[in-house]
Each structure stands twice: as structure tokens, then as C-alpha cells.
Amino acid sequence: MKKSRRSFLKVAGVSALGIGVAPAIKAVAASSAHAAAEATKTKNPEALTAKRWGMVIDTNKLNDEVAAKIVEACRKTHNVPDFHHEPDPEKFPKNRPVNQKQEVKWIWEEHFHNAFPDKEDEFLAEKFKNLPFLVTCNHCKNAPCVQACPTQATFKRDDGIVLMDFHRCIGCRFCMAACPFGSRSFNFRDPRPFIDEVNPDFPTRTKGVVEKCNLCAERLAKGLQPACVEVSEGAITVGDLEDPNSEVRALLNEKYSIRRKQELGTEPSVYYIM
């Protein structure tokens, strides 16, 4: 395994220098990426399906308490480490102090001017300055992270969900550089000591791996709504953007919404009702 990982790092480094080995990388990665995509499919008749999954966040229904519940539900469901406290020194005596800039985030609160820098203006309504805007992976229709990944560890399903194969990630962070939304996190250290209670239904990650929101693909496959939706008290809705009769389309038809950095052409699948 170590030899294989080292080989991939060498290949990725050469690719970054522009020496033209991209075809070789794609050839090596294609079969495994295809296998990963196949593994995400399900034959469960109760599975929730869509032609293109999307998310609508109603900012009028958000407050600090609801936002905190959403972040915590996501963290517990997907074993996202919490670096705001030190692990038990008796269990993990070798852990060094944590750099908070290395925090791992799937969905988190952000200020309006950081989430929507292109929509800031001199007379912005005061309520927007104080709202807890929740940001996450936008599962873009034209996802630049997918194009940047040299091993296809990041890939997009036919239903629009952008997923990661953690076992194929070589930690090059090309996807992080390509994402204009800062929606990916890198594990600079072993995240496991910082998980209070491990959810056995979802894999933990390792040092040197990138991770991000997966739109609760594993829950959708079981016929369950995403964890964030269940605790959002109506603030988050997930559904099929291409189905004119879906709940998300009804919300978008009735309410004014915006998306992050639309001018970049990535076509985000996350909408914010204002």
C-alpha cells in the first residue's frame, strides 16, 4: 500500500509540472473510479433518487440555534473531527496542540460578505450582515474539483452528487485549489482522536486525505433524508432540481434565491432563499 501511494504521488507531481502524463494517470485511475461510482449505486427500492440533486437553504428560517444543530448533526453522522477541544491525553498522549486553521468542515457558518463577496454593497440590509449563512459543497454541475483530481478520487455521479473515494485520494490537494468555494478540508493529522463518538455506519478518514460534504448519499440510498435536513426545522430542503414538481423547484418558483459565485460558471446546486 505504501509503495502504491508513493507511486501515485510521483505521478501527480509530474502531472503538476505539465510534462504531459495526464493520459497515463487517467488510464490508471479509470477502472477504480468506475468501480467507486458503481459502489454508490443501490438496488434498495426505498432509496431516494433524482436526476440532479440540489439543496435549497431558506435563510429566513435560520438562526444561531438551528445552524448549530445542523452543523452538529452533520459532524456526528459523518465522523467529522472536532478540533475545538483536545483529545484525552491518557488515550492519545502523543497528540500535539491543534492549529485551528486546519479545522475539517463539511457544513459551517459563514458571514454574508465571505459567502457572497460578489453581492456585497454599500446599503446591504442589516439582517444579512448578522445572519448565520450556512455554506457547504455546492455539488456543482460543472465541478472544477472533478477535473482537477489526477486520480479520479473525486468524481460526479449521474445524479449530480460529487463524491470522494477516500482510498484513492493521494493528498495532492489539487481539488482544494480548484474549488472556488473553499468547501474541502485536508486532514493534516489523524482526525480519529478528535471524534467524540464514532458513527460505525460511516468510515473515518486518515491523515493526508481530503474530505467534504457528500449530500448524505449513504442516507439517500437507504430512503432517508440528509441529516442536516432532518434537524433544520424546515430551513434546508433537498430534492430533484430537474423535476418541475419537486419541493425544491416549488420553493425556487415562489421565492427569490441566489447562488454563490454564479459568474464562475460552475453551476452550483445549492440555492439560498433571501
Automatic annotation (TrEMBL):
Keywords: 4Fe-4S, Iron, Iron-sulfur, Metal-binding, Signal
Gene3D superfamilies: 3.30.70.20
A molecular-function term among this protein's GO annotations: metal ion binding
Domain 4Fe-4S ferredoxin-type: 160-189
CDD domains membership: PsrB (cd10551)
Pfam family, one: Fer4_11
Cleaved signal peptide residues: 1-35
Domain of life the protein comes from: Bacteria
Name listed for the protein in its UniProt record: HmeE2
Gene: hmeE2
